[in-house]
Amino acid sequence: MRDAAPQLARGFVLTLEIAAAGTAGALVVGALGAALRVSQSRPARVAATAFTELFRNTPPLVQIYFLFFALPEIPGIGPALRLPSVVAATIGLILHQGAINVEILRAGLEAVPAGQREAASALGLSRFDQLRYVLVPQAVRISLPALGNNVISLFKNTVLVSSIGVLDLFGAANDTIAQILVSAELFITVGIVYLVCVGLLGALFRALEKRAALAR
């Protein structure tokens, strides 16, 4: 374990970077998709629904494999879209978890009291300003528990990136195991690291939920 520590530390840093980028990207995708899902434009609703159903209902590993292995093989446009493994893996996580965020935030938007919408309309706010200043902030507070669960799910799903050669924490552990042929200590260590990190994330989101409840 002492000899493997530097490689595991580098892998853990990369895991945190992928998780942070994935969380930010998934939130952006979720917010945009949810806004389209409740849009008055039928084509926008259909497109957002199709995106959500496609990426939410297919395994994230399949999406990562498609982006890394299959996308470059598409005639004409594929070679120009050959992505580095880290980028392909991160985009795959963003699309999958972002599609889940779309549904979470859509439900949150629909849970905002109708009186809030009517008041925003009475003030003359545009549809965009209603979403920005009135609906989305309240929807985020309502959806915070589910969003927290999705962030934790994304963090745990970072182990999938090692399947395309990314040396995240799990990938670094597998690489070390292949060299020294010892697995128990490394897998136990990786499990403990994920357990601690998920526990800290859970505590963070519980604190945010309490703060949001007090701010109402």
Number of contiguous helices = 8
- Tell the overall outline: flat
Oligomer state of the chains in this structure: single chain
The CA-CA distance between the termini, in Å, is 48 Å
- Could you list the spans in which at least 5 consecutive residues all have pLDDT below 50? none
Number of strands: 0
Give a structural overview.
By secondary structure, the chain is an all-alpha fold. It has a single domain (5-215), classed as MetI-like fold (Orthogonal Bundle), CATH 1.10.3720. The protein has eight helices and no strands. It is flat and about 70 Å long. It starts with a helix and ends with a helix. The model has no long low-confidence stretch (mean pLDDT 89).
Please write out the topology.
Elements: H1 5-37, H2 42-56, H3 60-70, H4 85-111, H5 114-122, H6 127-157, H7 169-180, H8 184-215
Helix pairs in contact: 1-2, 1-4, 1-6, 1-7, 2-4, 3-4, 4-6, 5-6, 6-8
Can you tag this structure with a few keywords?
216 residues, mainly alpha, MetI-like fold, flat
Describe what is shown at a glance.
The protein has eight helices and no strands. It is mostly helical and 216 residues long. Helix 1 (5-37) packs across helix 4 (85-111), helix 3 packs across helix 4 (85-111) and helix 4 crosses helix 6 (127-157).
